[in-house]
Structures are given as C-alpha cells and as structure tokens.
Amino acid sequence: MARRRIKRSNGGFRLNLPDNERDLLAHLLPQLRELLTAEPTPGDERVRRLFPTAYPDDPEKDAEYQRFMREELVSSRVNSIETVERTMHQSQLSADELAAWMSAVNGVRLVLGTMLDISEELELSHVDEADPNIGGYTLYGYLSMLLEEIVQAQLD
In degrees, to the nearest 5, what angle opens at C-alpha 34 toward C-alphas 31 and 37? Predict the structure, then answer.
C-alpha cells in the first residue's frame, strides 16, 4: 500500500507531498484562477461542473440563481486557491487550510474532467496508453487520488 501524503496529526494535518507534486499544483492553480475570474464565454464548457445547474427544469430560475450565486462561488474558490498557494510549502495544515486544499484540488479535477469528458463509467485503468489524452487522464487520476487522501484524512 502506498504511503499516504496527508494524515491527521497534532490537531491538524501533516502534508507530505514531494516537491514535484507541489510544483504541479503551483502550476495548475493559476490556470484555475484565470478560468474562474474570466468573463463567462458562451459555449465554454470547461467551468460547467464548477457552476452546476441548480434548476434543470427551469432555465429562468437557473439563470437567476447563477446571477446571484456565481460571484460568491468564484470568491470562495479563489480564496481556496490563495490559501493553497500560501500554504503550498508547509508541512502542517489546519482543518480550514485542508478544506481549502480539497476545494482547489477538486476544482482543477472538475475542469479537467469536463475537458476530457470523463464520466462515472470511465475506468482510468482501461485507458489505452496510445490515447492522445493519456497525460490528461493520468493527471485526472492523480488529482482524484489526492482528493481521496484529503477526504480520508478529514475522516480519520
């Protein structure tokens, strides 16, 4: 069994990420921030999973919900990104900091999953290594594993 990168420790959480994984997240988070803060572009599906439809059967109500809630959702996600960037090189995180990591990692994962059109039926272990998106699938698998470790640490 692989060594866990995140564990409950001393009233907080021990973060044991190698530098290359921290560097990867440091590279991805500004891209997520850019997507979140950009003016919504009709037809750009990349952020669809970050701003889910609240009223699928009522487009008018959903548009109103999106109008009122989008700014708050963006602010919350950007705050999470900033927390991760600020704590990127720490080895100990508070519960609130780990929750921000969970939000930021999941945000990147949701955008990537949308871009790759990943569904619940996809088994990452069955993706052909010759697939031109293999790097994206590998990254998605890593982010999923990291998210699972964050959730597990919170439950321990």
Answer: 150
Helix, coil or strand: residue 7: strand
How far is residue 89 CA from its own chain's centroid?
Answer: 18
Distance (Å, whole) CA 124 – CA 96: 31
CA distances from 58 to 15, 40, 61, 67, 130 (A): 43, 20, 5, 14, 42
CA 43 to chain centre: 21
Do the Cβ atoms of 39 and 95 come closer than 8 Å?
Answer: no
Residue 76 has pLDDT above 90, yes or no: yes
pTM: predicted TM-score of the whole model, two decimal places: 0.87
Host H or E run for residue 92: strand 92-93
Rounded Cα distance between 85 and 20, Å, is 15
Top pLDDT among 111 and 3 is at 111
DSSP 25-90: HHHHHHHHHHHHHSPP-TT--TTTTTS--S-TT-HHHHHHHHHHHHHHHHHHHHHHHHHHHHHTT-
Q: Tokens in use for 136?
A: 């994206």
